Amino acid sequence: MVPGAKPRKVACPICSKAAEFSPANPWRPFCSERCKLIDLGQLSSESYRIAFEELDDGAPEDPRE
Ligand SMILES: [Zn+2]
Description:
The chain is α+β, with helices and mostly antiparallel strands. Helix content is 34%, strand content 12%. The protein contains two helices and two strands. The relative contact order is 0.12. The structure holds zinc ion.
């Protein structure tokens, strides 16, 4: 098994096009710089904020006393 011998293809999270997930693709897991920039822009959008807030909440302690 040689790492990188078989480049993995992933679906671009933005446009769902096949993107090569390898060092040859600096925009991975996106297919292009454009899609990466679009994703960065969405970091400040509400849908992403909500997701981050949920993640930030973490695992609550057992509420039972
Ligand atoms: Zn894309």
